[in-house]
């Protein structure tokens, strides 16, 4: 359900910030939705013949729209413009000239060909923060298509995901796109802070491959620092154990034991008090060296009770563990914990996951549902002064 004035600044920390959003699919739209939740006025510029690709990525659908699109586009206004047409480009340029932030994820060189490249638009908007999201950068990888599955493959994530000896497994969501969106958002906020101090805009670039390699953290450090080439270990951890899946009486159970103290408590609760003093298991380093023997020792006691029973008892004792939930179970847990992870449907329509960051003074706001294609074209153009074509380079 749309508010009367969905474009008005929300009460968040980014109130008054205008974002010209040329992003498509996931990384860019996810980032700009988070900015919109924090009060920014995000103007989503889409092609008239279909708009953002994810509008057609269904089933499933809700209210006649693909849930993929709905999940990353609330609190935005949609403007349908044909950027191959001079009038459409001029209208887009006028929006950019009054924006604080521009976000785009076209193939490198596309925005320049449209007269919307960074060097061109900064002539009339020198304070603009210009964020480009690419698959593999703007130099040697400029011709490579930035699809999440491809980056998971060539970027090493699939090599450490899945069962040992397998061909590799992708994450169950487009995780690289999400991580990249978060990095891009951080870059934009840092650039806005720099502009606040100096008045200067700048270009912010983030690639899917670079973001993934950064997110590989301990696995990347093992390779760069120790020459290790990590391999897939299923649900086990290369440096910690027991940190894996066991079978409880009714369904799988995860143990995530990160300290010797937690391990000793686990052994006591399982009725195996002497196990923590066994030289093979007394320290984490020793446990990693003898992980197979340890898994056998733990399997029997864990199989004697249900996953929920262990979840309750071990969590209360300070031992990290829990069942493998489906999404219904995951949201039910979040509800029980009072995390407020669901946006009220009357605010933005069905299927909206709440902004994950809580603020004491500037909370996220949910002002409007994901827009229909071109829903706000007339509204936005009416409030946008025409650009001076003598400076537009169009």
TrEMBL record:
Single Gene Ontology MF annotation: CoA-transferase activity
Sequence segments annotated as region (Disordered): 345-378
Keywords: Transferase
SUPFAM superfamilies the record matches: CoA-transferase family III (CaiB/BaiF) (SSF89796)
Gene3D superfamilies named in the record: Crotonobetainyl-coa:carnitine coa-transferase, domain 1, formyl-coa transferase, domain 3
Domain of life: Bacteria
Pfam families assigned to the protein according to its UniProt record, in alphabetical order: CoA_transf_3 (PF02515)
Cited InterPro entries: CoA-transferase_III_domain, CoA-Trfase_fam_III, CoA-Trfase_III_dom3_sf, CoA-Trfase_III_dom_1_sf
Protein name: CoA transferase
Source taxonomy: Bacteria, Bacillati, Actinomycetota, Actinomycetes, Kitasatosporales
């Amino acid at each position: 359900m749309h508010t009367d004035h969905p474009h008005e600044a929300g009460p968040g920390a980014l109130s008054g910030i205008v974002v010209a959003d040329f992003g498509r699919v996931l990384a860019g739209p996810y980032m700009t939705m988070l900015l919109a939740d924090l009060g920014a006025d995000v103007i989503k510029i889409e092609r008239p013949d279909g708009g953002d690709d994810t509008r057609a990525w269904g089933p499933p659908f809700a209210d006649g729209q693909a849930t993929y699109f709905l999940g990353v586009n609330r609190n935005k206004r949609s403007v349908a413009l044909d950027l191959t047409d001079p009038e459409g480009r001029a209208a887009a340029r006028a929006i950019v000239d009054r924006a604080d932030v521009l976000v785009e994820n076209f193939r490198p060189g596309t925005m320049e060909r449209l007269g919307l490249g960074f060097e061109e638009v900064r002539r009339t908007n020198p304070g603009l923060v210009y964020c480009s999201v690419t698959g593999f950068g703007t130099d040697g990888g400029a011709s490579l298509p930035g699809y999440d599955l491809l980056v998971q493959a060539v970027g090493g994530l699939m090599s450490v995901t899945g069962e040992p000896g397998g061909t590799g497994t992708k994450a169950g969501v487009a995780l690289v796109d999400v991580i990249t969106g978060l990095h891009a958002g951080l870059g934009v906020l840092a650039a806005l802070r720099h502009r606040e101090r100096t008045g200067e805009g700048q270009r912010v670039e983030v690639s899917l491959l670079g973001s993934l390699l950064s997110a590989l953290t301990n696995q990347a450090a093992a390779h760069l620092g120790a020459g290790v080439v990590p391999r897939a270990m299923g649900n086990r951890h290369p440096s910690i154990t027991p940190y894996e899946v066991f079978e409880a009486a009714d369904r799988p159970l995860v143990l995530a034991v990160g300290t010797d103290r937690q391990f000793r408590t686990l052994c006591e609760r399982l009725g195996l008090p002497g196990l923590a003093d066994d030289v093979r298991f007394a320290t984490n380093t020793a446990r990693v060296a003898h992980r197979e023997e340890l898994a056998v020792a733990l399997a029997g006691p864990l199989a004697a009770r249900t996953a929920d029973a262990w979840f309750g008892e071990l969590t209360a004792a300070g031992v990290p563990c829990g069942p493998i939930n489906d999404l219904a179970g995951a949201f039910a847990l979040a509800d029980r914990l009072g995390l407020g992870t669901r946006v009220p449907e009357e605010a933005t329509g069905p299927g909206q996951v709440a902004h994950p960051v809580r603020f004491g003074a500037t909370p996220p706001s949910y002002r409007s549902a994901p827009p229909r294609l071109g829903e706000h074209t007339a509204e936005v153009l009416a409030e946008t002064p025409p650009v001076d074509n003598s400076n537009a380079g169009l």
